[in-house]
Amino acid sequence: MAKWKAYCWPAVVGLGLAGGLIVGGLWPQTPLHAVATDRIDTFGMATGPIDSDVEALYFLDFLTGDLRAVVLGKNPGTWTGFFNANVAADLGVDPQKNPKYLMVTGISYLRRAGGSRLQPSNSICYVAEVTSGKVAAYSVPWSKSLYAAGQMQSTALVLVGVTRFRPALGAGPGTMPDGGVRKVPR
Q1: How far is residue 38 from each of residues 16, 43, 145, 166, measured CA to CA in Å?
Q2: Which domain holds residue 124?
Q3: Strand order in the sheet with 181-182
């Protein structure tokens, strides 16, 4: 009887391990997406997915309001995407009045136009200016075919929309945001 127990446990463990590997291989896999953000006194940066296997690095200069995005190329040490916008101009903020910015990225699958070479990226870069109470959303105009060919992409970021999330500081008591979304001309 002791011999049976000695041989039975390794067989049970082996069957359990094999069954676990089979079930694990058949179970649908959920992709994990992660972004990173960081900031110092006058500069912020964040990452966001551009396509299924490509990521952008966003930089925001708090002094000038310049927002830039760069994309690494397929070959080590190469950069193939350069995109820019000026958040201060888009939000109507005076850079001389010490604006206070926040920046994060999020996933967004905007409608893609058929036949167009440049399509919206899979992420949105949101930039809020706290003293004005405004927020802007930007998308990278992306060409998967140019990236696959290793060709340079350099253009302006697309302003998806601007809205107010609270009244401007010093706007007076009882002032509420208009709640409307400014449509950006295409």
Answers
A1: 44, 9, 31, 24
A2: 37-170
A3: 101-107, 119-129, 134-142, 158-164, 181-182
Separation of alpha carbons 179 and 157, rounded Å: 24
Residue 161: CB atoms within 10 A of its CB come to: 14
Based on the structure, what is the number of domains in the chain? 1
Number of H helices and E strands in the chain, helices first, is: 3, 11
150 falls within a domain: yes
- What is the model's pTM? 0.73
143-184 pLDDT, tens digit per residue, is: 888 888 888 999 999 999 999 988 876 655 444 455 555 555
Q: How many CB atoms lie within 10 A of CB 63?
A: 13
Helix (H) or strand (E) holding 64: none
